[in-house]
Amino acid sequence: MKLGPSYPCGAGGAARAGHTPNIKPSIRMAVFVCLAIVLLPSLAHAYAGPGAGFAVLSSFWTLFVAFLYSLYAFLTWPLRHLLRLLRRRKAPGDAQFKRAVILGFDGMDPELAERFINEGRLPNLAKLRENGTFRKLRTTCPAISPVAWSTFMTGVNPGKHNIYDFLARDLNNYLPFLSSAEIKGPKRQVKIGKYTIPLGKPQIKGMRKGTPFWHWLGQAGIFCSVIRIPVTFPPEKFSGVLLSGMCVPDLKGSQGTFCFCTTRSTGDKFREGGVRVPVKRNGSVCRSYIPGPEDPLAAEKEMRVNFEIRPDLPRNQAQIEVDGEKFTLKVGEYSEWIPIKFKAGLGFTARGICRFYLKELSPEVGVYVTPVNIDPGHPDLPISHPVTYSIYLAKLFGPYATLGLAEDTWALNEEVLDDDAFLAQAYGNHEDRERMLFDALEKTPQGLCACVFDTTDRVQHMFWRYLDDDHPAAREVPRGERPQVIQDLYQRMDTLIGRVMEQVGKESLLMIVSDHGFKSFARCVNLNAWLHQNGYLALKPGVTESRDWFEDVDWSRTRAYTMGLNGLYLNLKGREREGIVDPGAEAEALKGELRSKLNGLVDPASGTVGITGVFDCDAVYAGPYVDNAPDLIVGYGAGFRASWDSVTGRVTSAIFEDNIKAWSGDHCIDPRLVPGVLFSNQKIAEEKPAIVDVAPTILKLFGLSLPGHFDGKPWTVAPTST
Prior knowledge:
Elements: H1 24-39, H2 59-90, E1 99-105, H3 110-118, H4 123-131, E2 133-137, H5 145-154, H6 158-161, E3 167-169, E4 176-178, E5 181-184, E6 188-192, E7 195-199, E8 203-206, H7 213-219, E9 224-227, E10 240-243, E11 258-262, E12 274-278, E13 280-282, E14 285-294, E15 302-312, E16 317-322, E17 325-330, E18 338-343, E19 349-354, E20 356-360, E21 366-369, E22 373-374, E23 384-385, H8 387-397, H9 409-413, H10 419-443, E24 447-453, H11 455-463, H12 485-504, E25 509-513, E26 519-525, H13 527-533, E27 560-562, E28 567-570, H14 585-598, E29 602-603, E30 608-609, E31 611-616, H15 617-620, E32 632-636, E33 639-642, H16 644-647, E34 656-658, E35 665-666, E36 676-680, E37 683-684, H17 694-701, E38 717-718
Helix pairs in contact: 1-2, 11-12
């Protein structure tokens, strides 16, 4: 069987494997990149990462490297083509399908899918259920997206891929860091007067371990297109193309920091996700700025881009000018993606893109600005493999969101955006993703095409309040007036699935998977408050509540603490810096005691069980990275989740409280309660499939032998005749 790419770029070779080499696409790409370098000659360095800014690959050097890569691909295609043929001969057996298409719908829930199918709202998923397969798909423990998608791609449990949550904790200071990637400044710096100049590119290290299944396919000469699958930043080299997904940072190095520029009193800071920026009036002109990454040449100083707002009250609109570009917005309207450039001394710059939303003009002026995304057309941090792929997509479709969490849930939580503004943003990003998917399907007639859509997850998180009979965040909205947002979401996804079914036909394997399902999040549980009130976590003398990140915790008297969404940790001697619990018998006894007391914990307000399972990680995980796991995983009951304060290491007086935020649905609970979905246009015999099985199944279907370290088992797939 002959499998290969037809992308106009150097990824995986200039020619389609198994056919007479077509040199023209590589020539076109080389010419395109040469022209891009000539037309876009600006030298730009980007800065990212919380704490300290640092220089990274400039746009010029990014394009120059892209040019060299394309030239290399053009000159070496005969040898690489021969190597692919030899690798493919090593693959035992024959592939069952020439092409596999995997659509990931983050958070699609099997109960809702079945309900809407039975109501006749999802005809395409109904067709797959009738003629192919529909199953609940067992998720990971915990049921958190980066954990589940890491297991999806590697075929192993978290003990072998090292991802247990969005956050991990630093054992030296108990503070969090992003679990998926580590970004540090260049190793070398030079001091010139008052400036400290970074030399070289940043150090970017992926923390996810294990090998994604598309790498095994690539080694066998099977081309893959991989679009926005979570935990693929930084992108890894393989024989195919990849655009990184969830966990790609913004230009500040955060997971998404919006700004709200307003003439209103700044007031309190946003709890998470955003900053308030003053707008100053000067006659008919208002001036503000967009905060950017830290200036690498001036310690603890952020770079800024200034912009002007010229209100036109009679027309209910305003002209905005930023970086020499002018555009007009009406109140309630978004701009297109606007390129901006942060400038430091000595010619250092950082380039990004953002969108403006005009929230109000009178009596106050308010402008929301999205987090500043890495510019895919001039990527100052690596967001695709090869580097030309993000540029190719930007030239084909225009600028697009690159931030891993591009739908600004925090802006809706903080009421900076309303429901309609959030949905406009979310579905705008979704439409960009659809265009990328269908381009990938066209360019990948054989091999693997995999694409994950985040809209299902973000919309359910934010609009579950309208689905519940009595959610605290929507009690003031009468049942008859609640919008059918989630129902509309599933119908949109079904329409997309129908379009894909038409394009791929029955000859290709089509799989629809989700990493987990969804449940209501109506009540918050502050586990740190419970630990404090039950004598496991101590505060400093005279303190009754702590601030964020355990600022007031007395570690010399603390035996257990929680941080993140589901993990509970012992303050273990020899592991944590100020640990007091002896490893071995004392630690095991403490784990048993905590499990006994927490399992079945009841919310006194309703008599409902708030915690339905506490899992010992020693029994759940196996592999070389189990030492990085929490000691216990807490499985919350339906309707409950870790409180916003508990996630950030804050101790409050209340253990249970209402969740009144727009973020009203969740899945970070007992994993047995939130399986994902598995739909396929083929018959799958497995009655209890799990997400860990996807990787071995795909390798088996392409005729490859399975690595011995896999935890998942391949399914038996029988092609349908209809």
